[in-house]
Amino acid sequence: MRRSRHITPVLRSSDVRDGEPTPADTLRYLVHLPDGYDADPSRLWPLVLFLHGAGERGSDVDLAAVHGPPKLADDGHEFPFVLVTPQCDESSQWVAELSTLSALLDEVSAAHRIDPSRISVTGLSMGGFGTWSLAIRYPDRFAAIAPICGGLWMQSAAPIRSLPVWAFHGDADDVVPISATEQIVTELRSLDADVRFTRYAGVGHDSWTETYDNPEFYDWLLSHRRNCHDAEGTAR
């Protein structure tokens, strides 16, 4: 996959300097494009937004790619979607960046051939919290979400009752207890939501490596489509 570095909003690119904290309401991010992206100018592609954990915050955007799909892409794995990996500043967290993340999706969608009905979000730990919260803030924006070892703070999951969810958590997690995911899943199931929950027996906080190494995970993400206007040339 072809990788590039960016700043959002693009109009503030000149405000961002290497080695310095990222200004408020601004995000550094990586884009990985599939090798076949340029082959068919009429083809629209799914987009997967990946949110890293707390340990990858900072001003070096390469840190955002030490786990998960961007790491696999950098290692040579080819994905059939556009992968977007923003980096959270070390003084912030994803739940404080929801509007900036939404603007980032707008910017990437305008700059690339993205199928608006096939935008998904996944993240681990702090990024798992961000995945839940982003979907609850913008429930009509995503085709599916996949939060890993995350949770919610004083929020109801009711706004995403119609959104396909696959959540993951290790039952030996001593950083974010599995009860954080269990509570959300219980609420969603009480609302007859489309939710899957994978518990990893004996697994601690790192429940993401096994998840992101599983081809079924990506098949599931890409199998969903948000109800919106029909898009032509969708990637399959």
Q: Any descriptors?
A:
236 residues; 25% helix; 6 helices; disordered C terminus; alpha/beta; eight-stranded mixed β-sheet
Care to describe what's here?
The chain is an alpha/beta fold and 236 residues long. Helix content is 25%, strand content 23%. The protein is built from six helices and eight strands. It has helices at residues 68-74, 98-111, 126-137, 179-190, 208-212, 215-222; strands at 2-8, 27-33, 45-51, 82-87, 114-124, 144-148, 165-170, 195-200. The chain has an eight-stranded mixed sheet, sandwiched between helices. Strand 5, helix 3 (126-137) and strand 6 form a beta-alpha-beta unit. The longest helix has 14 residues, at 98-111. 42% of the residues are buried. Residues 229-236 have low confidence and may be disordered.
Taking pLDDT < 50 over at least 5 consecutive residues as the criterion, the unreliable ranges are: 229-236
Mean pLDDT: 94
Return the structural class: alpha/beta
Work out the helix count.
6
Biggest sheet: strands, sense, closure?
8 strands, mixed
SSE run: EEEHEHEHEEHEHH
**Helix percent band:** 10-25%
Computed CA radius of gyration, to the nearest angstrom:
17 Å
- What percent strand? 15-25%
How are the strands of the biggest sheet laid out side by side? 1-2-4-3-5-6-7-8
Outline, from the CA principal axes? Answer: globular
N/C terminus separation: 17 Å
Report the strand count: 8
